[in-house]
TrEMBL record:
GO terms for molecular function: DNA-binding transcription factor activity, RNA polymerase II-specific; transcription cis-regulatory region binding; zinc ion binding. Residues 316-398 form the Xylanolytic transcriptional activator regulatory domain. This is Xylanolytic transcriptional activator regulatory domain-containing protein. The keyword Transcription regulation applies. Residues 94-132, 147-173, 605-705 are annotated as: Disordered. It is found in: Nucleus.
């Protein structure tokens, strides 16, 4: 500070510092008031309130006074902030100078493009596509209202007289369905009006507070396109430029910058940006425009949320539900009958379909993982496996999206066959022949794998690194699905008592689980993409590892060979090493799963003997230490130095599970670990079938699984591996 004020006297410096402290205190007090005041108005809510105010109320002194108080409570005022307008100009200039990776013609423009003008009839048909179907009551009302207004509009124009509805428009009670414009699109559907409102009243907090510059934004978006979008294929680079997203949905802009900053060379951005993203997620639900971009933002939040140390704090499932509800509210599940006349319009329609398919995939995969009922039913869009060929403007990742959707349909049909007993509380049908049903669907998985391997070879862009990586995910996902299927029959056999002909379930589960782990270690991790993977891929590998450890029960000693036991320990050891090498720091998801698996493996290795009664050898020396060249790096790319909590895998002891614990809320804001975690109930899962011969928590030794999960500060998703789960042979969920 002395260098900043070389010409000031000692007293002047003191006064200056005190003034700075007072200024910061005022800012903190203002932020705390906003945080704890649920009635704080926002500019968008004021704009909506003004629009809804009736003519008579506009002259009411009390209403006018209240509006003035609302307006004065918001920051900034109606004039555009120079800093954010400068940000927009810099984004446009940077984008233009970059050579147009995203086509500038696809950005939102203040001018109406050629071919974008619509007649009244065309506008009405566009509105119908976003409203409920005419077969339902509210849809019928909307259809009748639009038809009536369209007819009156033509009659007025032909007669050359003003509309007869002028009087109705001035009526104070002209609200709800009585308003002829009730079913017509509002300001949110006009991109230019929405853009101006957002620029003036609702800029992203990360811009408003100067957390990122225009140069940062460009780099963060490049990180998103190169490292994150290949996993989810959520956005179209042609229409989703930084400028366009800034003007359409500040929430999505914030989320993209926040998630990408995890892999950026400025470590200080990520924790604060994620705080802004969570805050924006709450505000957008109340005041944000209902749009496809809002749905996309919640999808990203569900996939890349900050790890929670308690299940009750995890919001990923809720974010998924919000995305699905918004998508349904926008009628993304309905096939549009509008024929696009420009490339921009066609890309917008493809974007809507793509988001709906991602919602379906996310719904089915997370429902299986968490043991929840799925929300979205199959429809025409979901069943159309050739959608990726629909248009020359389809994204290069659409083929893989269709392939994953087809896989989830097979898994869903298997679940429908297994949970087909209407008289069972859980729906599980114990009277079916599990082997026959599972073999039938396993055969479908094999046919699916052959078909989509051929499609990927013929239609996927093998010159694109992201496309090549998405093709590599196919064996990983198919083997995990196969493991889930065979675990049902395995549990059924385990419940009634294992017989010699039940060995097929054990062998199939063993082969599928080891294949999942091997593919992560030998194929996915070396690709260079897994460091920025969503949590789901690490969850699958961790669940497969935990399932393999359940095979070490004494009951399966007669079915499990010494070689198979060695392979279990070796596979999980290699996975732990791989996850550690993928981790950016000790709070990164791969490292948390590595700690969890290492603690599990330690408990099974106590005394150096396998649970099945065979002595266990230690993993090869080549797998017991990290190579310096593959050390994870910190937020800003700094070398991540090994610490005592970083597991060196050369024979673990029980004391190795004493690792520091992290509070995700605290570490999110200040980046430092806070000790102390409390136990919380596991997630709601499908009640397992009780096994008479199933050992209790003492099978893993004391303390129980809940205690162990708390001790190592494991991720909330791992709460599915509770003490009850270890008493059966099911997969989580």
């Amino acid at each position: 500070m002395s260098q900043d004020l070389p010409t000031l006297s000692h007293s002047s410096k003191r006064e200056y510092l005190l003034a700075q402290i007072r200024h910061k205190d005022q800012m903190i007090e203002s932020l705390l008031k906003q945080l704890h005041n649920p009635y704080t108005a926002t500019p968008l809510s004021i704009s909506a309130f003004k629009t809804a105010t009736s003519p008579s109320d506009k002259d009411n002194v009390k209403i006018v006074d209240w509006m003035d108080r609302l307006q004065s409570s918001t920051k900034p005022p109606t004039q555009p902030c120079p800093s954010r307008m400068e940000m927009l100009r810099e984004l446009r200039d940077t984008h233009n100078n970059a050579g147009g990776v995203g086509d500038n013609s696809m950005e939102d423009s203040d001018e109406i493009e050629e071919g974008d003008e619509t007649t009244e009839g065309e506008e009405t048909e566009k509105v119908r596509g976003t409203l409920p179907d005419a077969a339902v009551p509210i849809g019928l009302l909307a259809s009748l209202s639009l038809d009536k207004d369209k007819g009156k509009g033509r009659a007025s124009q032909s007669a050359g007289t003003p509309s007869t509805n002028t009087k109705l428009e001035e009526d104070d009670d002209n609200v709800g369905v009585a308003n002829k414009e009730y079913f017509m699109p509002g300001l949110a559907n006009n991109l230019n009006i929405r853009k101006n409102l957002i620029e003036q009243h609702s800029p992203p907090d990360i811009v408003l507070h100067g957390l990122v510059t225009a140069a940062d934004v460009e780099k963060l978006f490049e990180i998103f396109w190169g490292k994150i979008n290949p996993f989810i294929s959520l956005l179209d680079r042609k229409i989703h430029t930084p400028t366009t997203i800034f003007q359409r949905c500040p929430f999505l802009f914030t989320v993209i910058c926040a998630i990408s900053s995890r892999y950026y060379d400025k470590p200080e951005i990520y924790p604060v940006a994620m705080h802004f993203a969570k805050h924006a997620a709450a505000n957008a639900l109340i005041d944000g425009w209902k749009s496809v971009e809002l749905c996309q933002a919640y999808i990203l939040m569900s996939l890349y949320t900050v790890p929670a140390r308690r299940w009750e704090e995890d919001r990923s499932w809720l974010y998924t539900g919000l995305a699905i509800r918004i998508a349904t509210d926008l009628s993304l599940h309905q096939v549009s009958e509008i024929r696009p006349t420009t490339e921009r319009q066609e890309r917008e329609l493809l974007n809507r379909i793509r988001v709906w398919m991602i919602c379906f995939n996310l719904d089915r995969s997370t429902a299986t993982q968490f043991g929840k009922p799925s929300t979205i039913k199959e429809d025409y869009i979901i069943r159309n496996a050739n959608w990726y060929k629909k248009s020359p403007h389809n994204d290069k990742y659409d083929i893989h999206l269709c392939g994953y959707t087809a896989l989830l349909r097979i898994v869903a049909q298997f679940h429908d066959d297994v949970f087909s007993d209407p008289d069972s509380p859980t729906g599980l049908n114990r009277s079916i022949d599990f082997l026959t049903v599972t073999l039938e669907h396993d055969n479908r998985l094999t046919l699916y794998f052959d078909e989509w391997t051929k499609r990927f070879n013929e239609d996927s862009d093998h010159t694109d690194p992201g496309s090549a990586f998405r093709c590599k995910l196919l064996p990983f996902l198919v083997n995990y699905s196969r493991l889930v299927m065979y675990s049902f029959g395995f549990q059924h056999a385990f419940q009634r008592g294992m017989e010699s002909n039940d060995q097929v379930f054990l062998e199939k589960c063993f082969d599928a689980a080891t294949a999942v782990i091997e593919h992560v270690v030998e194929v996915l991790a070396p690709s260079g993409f897994m460091r920025s993977s969503p949590d789901g891929h690490f969850v699958f590998a961790s669940f497969a590892s935990a399932f393999l450890l359940k095979l070490l029960r004494p009951e399966f000693a007669q079915f499990l060979t010494h070689k198979m036991e060695d392979e279990i320990f070796e596979s999980i050891s290699r996975l732990i090493t791989t996850l550690q090498e993928l981790a950016i720091d000790e709070r990164h998801t791969p490292h948390l799963y590595a700690r969890f698996l290492a603690s599990l493996l330690t408990k099974h290795r106590k005394g150096g003997a396998g649970v099945g009664g065979h002595p266990q050898s230690q993993p090869p020396a080549s797998q017991s230490a990290h190579k310096p060249s593959t050390q994870p790096r910190g937020y800003g790319g700094q070398q991540y130095i090994s610490s005592p909590s970083r597991l060196q895998y050369s024979g673990l002891s029980s004391q190795d599970s004493s690792y520091p614990r992290y509070d995700s809320d605290n570490m999110q804001m200040n980046g430092s670990p806070f000790p102390g975690t409390s136990r919380s109930p596991p997630p709601a899962t499908t009640p397992p079938m009780p096994a008479a011969n199933a050992p209790g928590p003492e099978y893993l030794g004391e303390p129980g699984m809940d205690d162990m999960l708390t001790d190592i500060g494991a991720l909330a998703s791992m709460r599915a591996l509770n003490d009850v789960w270890w008493g059966n042979m099911m997969m989580p969920g």
